[in-house]
């Protein structure tokens, strides 16, 4: 589980930032959600509690959908110009 957290931390630190709060928020939230999905998949592989497994399945579905939405919003943003 810690390996998944470390991977997420590195991906968030490497997220492309441009100083626009909306862009930067989305840019960092995508790897954050990917990290949650990675951890939830570990629960599906190794977890035994049915309630936690159900939670993990919901997290995967919801966060995959949110990643698609965030990618769409990022693609629709105009480029940031600096004076």
From TrEMBL:
<protein>
    <recommendedName>
        <fullName>DUF305 domain-containing protein</fullName>
    </recommendedName>
</protein>
<dbReference type="InterPro" id="IPR005183">
    <property type="entry name" value="DUF305_CopM-like"/>
</dbReference>
<dbReference type="InterPro" id="IPR012347">
    <property type="entry name" value="Ferritin-like"/>
</dbReference>
<dbReference type="Pfam" id="PF03713">
    <property type="entry name" value="DUF305"/>
</dbReference>
<feature type="domain" description="DUF305">
    <location>
        <begin position="2"/>
        <end position="74"/>
    </location>
</feature>
